[in-house]
């Protein structure tokens, strides 16, 4: 497909979206006063709920940490099975198809299913994060394996090394920095996603936002929002420091 055809398709998609999205610009003028009224109700934030905020943030952090940990463990196995370098097409093709199906299921739907299966609390959030993150991390791990230089692996294979030895001594030293980068990125994404899981009862601080907004306690909702912003900024800082440390 030529470049001009690609650009034509992209422009056509944008034009189609603009013409069929039923976007009325007049609504933006009316939205301003309503938005301002909503924001003024959130000032000043009610900081008396700091204990509830800390409990919610701690639960959200636990969900993200444990969900990422279990996803890393599962992705290590699925990543090997999905690798073109280590596995035959009869193995890696169906595994990659399975991972694509996992990624296609929305996280919020997974969380709702887990809540229905195991009840309310952080456990369904952990299971939902684990399930959804595995679909992405396993794909990243498989691609990291497939993108390594084949020379060291071929040398080990010619020397009679097993598949596990090839992975340990020929592949892992090359892919370790990529694995760390992708895992840290996924943890940051898991943390952000964990913030909204409380909306469906899967634990975390999202439950507090839903409760306060529905009960028109906007000052408390503002405090929770500020706490979430602080947590996200902190995760960004840690991510940056880790990248600098291992780059």
Please give a structural write-up.
The protein contains ten helices and no strands. The chain has 247 residues and is mostly helical. It is globular, with a radius of gyration of 23 Å. It has helices at 3-20, 26-41, 50-81, 89-104, 107-118, 122-146, 150-158, 163-197, 206-214, 218-246.
Give the class-level CATH name. Answer: Mainly Alpha
What's the alpha carbon Rg, rounded to whole Å?
23 Å
**Count of discrete alpha- or pi-helical segments spanning 4 or more residues:** 10
Q: Which structural class matches the secondary elements?
A: mainly alpha
Given the C-alpha coordinates, what overall shape results? globular
Query: Sheet bearing the most strands, described?
Result: none
CATH architecture: Orthogonal Bundle
Which stretches are poorly predicted, pLDDT < 50 over at least 5 residues?
Answer: none
DSSP strand count: 0
State the separation between the terminal residues, measured CA to CA: 37 Å
Percent of residues in beta strands?
Answer: under 5%
Percent helix, as a range, is: over 70%
The named CATH superfamily: MetI-like
CATH topology: MetI-like fold
Number of domains: 1
Order of helices and strands: HHHHHHHHHH
Overall average residue pLDDT? 84
């Amino acid at each position: 497909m030529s470049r001009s055809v690609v650009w034509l398709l992209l422009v056509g998609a944008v034009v189609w979206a603009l013409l069929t999205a039923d976007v009325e610009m007049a609504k933006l003028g009316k939205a301003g006063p309503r938005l301002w009224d909503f924001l003024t109700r959130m000032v000043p934030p009610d900081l008396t709920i700091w204990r509830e905020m800390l409990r919610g943030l701690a639960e959200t952090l636990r969900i993200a940490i444990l969900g990422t940990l279990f996803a890393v463990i599962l992705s290590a196995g699925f990543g090997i099975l999905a690798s073109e370098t280590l596995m035959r097409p009869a193995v890696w093709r169906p595994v990659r198809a399975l991972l694509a199906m996992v990624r296609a299921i929305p996280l919020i739907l997974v969380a709702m299913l887990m809540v229905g299966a195991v009840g309310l609390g952080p456990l369904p959030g952990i299971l939902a994060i684990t399930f959804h993150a595995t679909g992405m991390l396993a794909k990243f791990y498989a691609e990291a394996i497939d993108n390594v230089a084949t020379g060291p692996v071929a040398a080990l294979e010619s020397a009679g090394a097993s598949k596990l030895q090839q992975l340990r001594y020929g592949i892992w030293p090359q892919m370790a920095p990529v694995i760390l980068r992708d895992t840290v990125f996924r943890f940051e994404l898991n943390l952000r996603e964990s913030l909204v899981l409380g909306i469906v009862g899967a634990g975390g601080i999202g439950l507090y936002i839903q409760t306060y907004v529905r009960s028109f306690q906007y000052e408390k909702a503002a405090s929770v929002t500020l706490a979430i912003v602080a947590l996200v900024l902190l995760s960004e800082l840690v991510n940056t420091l880790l990248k600098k440390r291992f780059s």
